[in-house]
Each structure stands twice: as structure tokens, then as C-alpha cells.
Amino acid sequence: MTRLAAVGGLLLGGAMVTQAAMASEPPAATATVRSAAAPVVSNPGAALVKKLGAARTAGTWINDDGRPVVAVTDEETADAVRASGVEAKVVSHSMNELKSATATLRSAPKVPGTAWVMDYRTNQVVVQADKTVSAADWSRLTDTAAGIGSFVRMERTAGAFTTRINGAQPILSTGGRCSAGFNVTNGKSDFILTAGHCGPTGSAWFSDNQAEQQVGQTVNSNFPGSDFSLVQYANGKAGDGADVVAIGNGNGVRITGAGDAAVGQRVFRSGSTSGLHDGQVTGLDATVNYPEGTVSGLIETNVCAEPGDSGGPMFSDGIALGVTSGGSGDCKTGGTTFFQPVTDALAQLGGVQLIVAAPSAGAQGATQGSSAGPAPASSPTQAAIAPGSASPGTTTPVTGGGNVSLAARLTDPRNIGPGLLVIAGSMVALVATRYFRAEQDRKAYQRYYSATWG
After folding, report:
1. By three-state DSSP, how is residue 98 classified?
2. How far is CA 292 from CA 113, 199, 297, 353, in A?
3. Which residue from 236, 237, 179 is spatially nearest to 205, judged by alpha carbons?
4. In 3-state terms, what secondary structure has residue 314?
5. Which residue in the list 119, 190, 227, 317 is annotated as catalytic?
6. What are the recorded Gene Ontology BP terms (predicted)?
7. CA 110, CA 265: separation in Å to the nearest integer?
């Protein structure tokens, strides 16, 4: 009976160890999908601009203290904005006038190496020309700007406006090297949302220089005009960590939703060439005349980027904002980088949703109803916080979770202590039982031998 009890103790101790190790396994992070029809609101002032109209307003931005500001054209509208708890700034030119100026520029002969954007904070349209623009083209562009009005500002920029593609390193398509943006799905297959200039429809993508490990194939590409594309995964699924974007050193940021960028917002960009960098949104609805063609509706930032960073994600506080299009400069001297808005890309694609981390109960943005944003408030919300205080988002291993193997958990004394005690006690009992049984057998043999040969 003692021996049987010891064996039972061994089995019980083993079961306790295994159960403790399994119970210590961290819960797997779950991912879900979120529609582009209900973007996260980065700037509460946007709702006021939409309500008051383009004839009475001229854009909105996030101030240095993290509060929204709305540009208005008269004191009556300013009073209405202030009554909503938002700061108002009276300016000379309405959004309609700013858009009319950009339309005039767009209708002029295209000059590669030029770009323009509405600067809400100065109430101007800023026209930029890189080093490739000739003196003659610059002169003609200056004359066009002068004909529009004094609120069009001309600037020369260092470097050249180019798409950020490079054809010599891993993560390759047939068009060259790019960076993966965000993972999206149509409910049946998963895709990478990246830049459209990376390659036309049909381009094959690989994760190695030998073109042996295929990632997927471009099934939808939009460039020029816009700058986004879909790369369908070769096996149809993004796999573990689909809601995570890599930021370097084996870490990533969980994406919890998609939103529209706000002027003044601090943002982060990650790319396969230069890694993680941050800066501010400096303009919206920018137009860039790349050598390959014109792209409009872009987000302008002062975040740096380099060749090979194209298609990489831009985000803030875990909210997907854009994918890298192009720009000028580099991450040593600084520069300007433009991004394709994620919400616009998803809206144009239709039927595709962003894969995001499942929101925790009660977390902000856990549920989204109509596409209309919340009522404007004077307090900072989501990414509409002081530009220097924003963060990329919740960091996590790029594998999608801090998974620990069963073997590692089986060797963790915090998990298996009680079970080991039971096993040790059972082993002692088993050894003692075997010793006593052997001693009894030896004495019985001695008695038998004495009786036989007495």
C-alpha cells in the first residue's frame, strides 16, 4: 500500500507541475478589425470646422499645449467656437480661398520637384521647390503664385522630392525595396497596406535577396494620384502579431485604430532603413509633383525618412495615420516626409479593414458608433495632446506577445514549487518502501537458508 501511495504521489506531483506551468502562460493577445468608416478623432476641432463650413473657417490644428485651435474668418464665428470650449483664431482667408489657390497651382503646368500645402497656422499656401527645379521653372511658378495673392508663400528646399524606394536590400518587390505598413483584411484574406509606388499590380514580394521566401503579391496599386497598394500574403494570413508594427530592437507597437492626422500632432514613423523617428504634422492635403507623377491629399510632416522606408507606417498613440510616400532630406540632416492617409486609402479600397489590437474593457475608443466625432472639448483627447507628450503606443514584442515556452515555464520555480515538493516526498517514500522490502526479503532468505542447511 505504501508503494502504491508513493506512485500516486508522483503522478499527482507531475500533474501539479504541468497545471501550474500551463496556468502561468500569458494569455494570447487577440486582434480584431476596425472599419475606416469610424476613424479615431485626433483633433476635436475638426467637428467644428465641418459644422461651421469652409466659408467661415480655415482649418484647425493642435497648439503647443495640446489644445485644438480653429481658424475662423469673423468674430461671430469665433464666439461660436469659443462657446464650444475651443480656442479661435481670426484669419484673413477662408478654407475656400486656400483651396482655390491650390486648384490654380494644380492647373498650372506640372513641374517635377515641387510641392504645395495649406499651412493652417499661418493662413497661407506654401509652395516648395527642390534643388532639381530650374531657375526658369521657379520664375514661372513665382509668377503664378503672385497672381493668386500674397497669402501664397514660396520656399526653396534642400535635397530633392523623391519616393523612398531602394532596390538593394531585403523585403523586396520586383520594383525594389520598401517597408510593410499596416495589416488589413477583407475577412477572407489578409494584406499589407503599403505605398503604391513600390510596385504595380502583380509585383512579387520576398523577404530575402535570393527571392526564395515569398511574402506575397501586389493585388491592388494606386499611384500616381494617390499612393497606396495592397500586398496579399502568400499563405492568405498575416499570422501572429498582425496588429503590431515593428519599431526596432525586437519591439513593436500595438495598433488600436485608424484616424485622421491633425496639424501640430506629434507622430512616429517606422521604416526598414532608418528605424523609428518622430516629428510633427505640418500640413494636410499636400500635393507633391514626384518625377513619376503627381500625388495629392498627402500629410506633410517634418519627420525624416530615407530610401527603403517607403510604405512604412506612421502612427501616434497606437493610432494608424499614414504610410510613407516620399519627401526630401534624410535622417542625418532632417527633411520633409509626406504620407498617404490610411483612412483615405481604406475608403478608396472599400471592403478592407484595419487589423487592430482588441480594445480592453472601458478603454477609450473601445467602441465606435457613427462616423461623426465626439463633441469638441477643451481637454486633450487621444493623440490631440501636447506634441512633446505623445507616444508611439503600447509596446510589445514584434512576435505579437511575450510568449514563453512550456519548457521555460516548467523550469520556473515560482510555478512548480508545490508540485516539486509532492514529487520529492513521493520519491523518498518510494525509496524507503523499496529499502524496507529488500531488507525483509534478505532476512527471510537467511531464515530459509538456516532451516535448509541447519
Report:
1. helix
2. 10, 12, 16, 29
3. 179
4. strand
5. 227
6. proteolysis
7. 30
Q: Which of 195, 160, 220 is closest to 350 using CA atoms?
A: 220
The rounded distance, in Å, linking the Cα atoms of 214 and 142 is 48
d(CA 419, CA 18): 9
Give the residue from 420, 415, 421 showing the smallest Cα distance to 21: 415
Instruction: Output the nine-digit C-alpha cell for 193.
Output: 497596406
Q: Are 279 and 304 in contact (CB under 8 A)?
A: yes
Beta strand pairing call for 251-254 and 244-248 = antiparallel
Q: Annotated catalytic, 310?
A: yes
* Strand spans (E) along 210-333: 214-222, 228-233, 244-248, 251-254, 257-258, 266-271, 275-290, 293-301, 313-316, 319-330
Phi-psi region at 126: left, alpha or beta (left = phi > 0; alpha = psi -120 to 50): beta
Q: Is 296 a catalytic residue?
A: no
The residue from 197, 221, 243, 325 that is catalytic is 197
378 catalytic residue (yes or no):
no
Selected catalytic residue, list 229, 310, 328, 426: 310
- Average pLDDT, consecutive stretches of 10 residues, N- to C-terminus, the chain (454 residues): 58 56 47 57 86 97 93 97 96 97 95 96 97 96 96 93 54 73 94 92 84 89 97 91 86 92 95 92 97 96 92 94 95 95 96 84 38 37 51 64 39 51 62 61 53 48
The b/e string for 258-274 (b: 16+ C-beta within 10 A; e otherwise) is bbbbbbbbbbbbbbbbb
Strands 395-397 and 251-254: antiparallel
Q: How far apart are the first and last CA of the chain?
A: 35
